[in-house]
């Protein structure tokens, strides 16, 4: 390797040492091929736990665009099965007029949801991250899996698509085409319908967490039940997903879609984050009585490892700071004020950006 003539010894010694170190690590990795995979996954795990932007962007790209992401997900699944052999939470099913919703506890804090039309014994599953666990529930219920509704590409939501497809060859996989969803057979656009048995779902395009994130609204009208929203990583109990692939304006528009739904709509999010999220909400709205009451209830539930879903959209509007972007209380808590010339939507996007930034610093979670 040639170095420029005017480079001083101390200047070229740094790249030389760096190159030598890299070659040494590479040799060790090549010498121990099995160890190499573990080293990469361990490194990815460590970086994924950080939120400093440049490091996180590298890890996020590796996670979403390379096989390392899949290996990382498989490792997380193995670890979760060891740590929580009976699941991270105990969940109860809800059945109204023959439509049954079963939250399935998977990985370390995810939920998949099995939705069954009991009259025809056909089922749909939302985000089947762990195919083995979902398959066990399908067998227990004795139902036929007709469709997978995938909210987005992250492995902890889409990782089980292909495994279930192998077991159920006629199973359709729905999602947005821009999100590179494994096994996708039926690409969806905003407000498309998916009908299985007596179950009617409307897909809503809600980018921000990822470019092609979708949420699914099960219409309760046909059976006289409240509607149910499967919100993936857009909205959680008292929280919202991180804005990995969209601006605050994009995310705000997606959150507005959720706010526009009827207050009775049941919310079934993709993760069990209720306790952490309500603690963060206390930081920004310490005097919110609805939040305090919900927190007491959540502590009781989590004390027994019980699932905290579903809440309702009406409830969320009372304590979820990400659905309260318009409130004066939140503006004051964040020290933000609308400028005289500032557009209301742009101002709300600024509020969301600041709120999300504070949450990212508060807890380093997805
Ligand atoms: Zn996600």
Automatic annotation (TrEMBL):
Residues 109-271 form the Metallo-beta-lactamase domain. The keyword Magnesium does not apply. InterPro entries: Clx_II_MBL, HAGH_C, Hydroxyacylglutathione_Hdrlase, Metallo-B-lactamas, RibonucZ/Hydroxyglut_hydro. Its cofactor is Zn(2+). GO terms for molecular function: hydrolase activity; metal ion binding. The keyword Nucleotide-binding does not apply. Pfam families: HAGH_C (PF16123), Lactamase_B (PF00753). The chain crosses the membrane at residues 12-33. Keywords: Hydrolase, Membrane, Metal-binding, Transmembrane, Transmembrane helix, Zinc. CDD domains: hydroxyacylglutathione_hydrolase_MBL-fold. PANTHER family: BETA LACTAMASE DOMAIN, HYDROLASE PNKD-RELATED. Belongs to the metallo-beta-lactamase superfamily. Glyoxalase II family. This is Metallo-beta-lactamase domain-containing protein.
